[in-house]
Each structure stands twice: as structure tokens, then as C-alpha cells.
Amino acid sequence: MTPNFFIYLLVMAGVTYLVRVIPLILVKKEITNKFLLSFLYYMPYAVLTVMTIPGIFFATTYTASAVVGLIVAIILALRGKGLTTVAIVSCLGVLVTELLITYVI
């Protein structure tokens, strides 16, 4: 390990800590602004989506199979299926699409 590693580790730990502590220090009373509450409610979903969507398209050999998996996942999620069901069936959709593209086309 290089000496810089520990400097980077300390900076990362400090930034991570400050991001969590600063809102607790600055916000003393309950948040009542409906826009801000809505923003904070949907923020985790937006971040998760931004992190997941690129991974979907780079995890497969063919873009078409990624699109099929994404569409299957969206349809199942909108129908209220659980996370495990959505993940398994969308992976199967990608697998079937990749097999079709590889062996049929």
C-alpha cells in the first residue's frame, strides 16, 4: 500500500461523515415544506435508478437483450411483483434473448 492510500481513506471518511452530519447540524426543526419532503422522499429512487440503468446496458453482450430485460423488469415492477421475481424473470428474459440472438440469428 502506498502512503497516499491512507490520505485518500481519511479524506473519503471525512467527506462521508460530513455529508451525514451537516444536515443534522443545520436542520433543527421538522421539515414541513411539501416540495422538499417530496424531493427527499424520491431521492433514493432516483439515485438507485441512475446507478442501475447504465449497468443494465453494459452487463450484456447485446444491447437488444438489455432492452428486453429492462422492459420485462419495468412491466413486472409496475404490476407489483416482488424484487426477487422481477430480478429472476428479467434475467431469464436476458438469457433467452442472448441465446436466441447467438444461435438463431
Question: Please, could you describe this protein's structure?
Answer:
Helix 2 runs antiparallel to helix 3 and helix 3 packs antiparallel against helix 4. With 105 residues, the protein is an all-alpha fold. The mean pLDDT is 92. It has a domain of 72 residues. Helix content is 82%, strand content 0%. The protein starts with a helix and ends with a helix. The longest helix has 25 residues. The radius of gyration is 21 Å and the shape is flat.
What would you say about this model in short?
The chain is mainly alpha-helical and 105 residues long. It is 82% helix and 0% strand.
List the helices and strands and how they pair.
Layout: H1 3-26, H2 34-58, H3 63-78, H4 83-103
What is the makeup of the main sheet? none
Shape assignment: flat
- Oligomeric form: single chain
- Give the end-to-end Cα distance, rounded to a whole number of Å: 49 Å
SSE-based structural type: mainly alpha
Number of helices: 4
Number of strands: 0
- Radius of gyration, taken over Cα atoms and rounded to an integer in Å: 21 Å
- Would you identify the regions where 5 or more consecutive residues have pLDDT less than 50? none
Helical percentage: over 70%
Order of helices and strands: HHHH
What fraction of the residues are assigned to beta strands by DSSP? under 5%
Mean pLDDT: 92
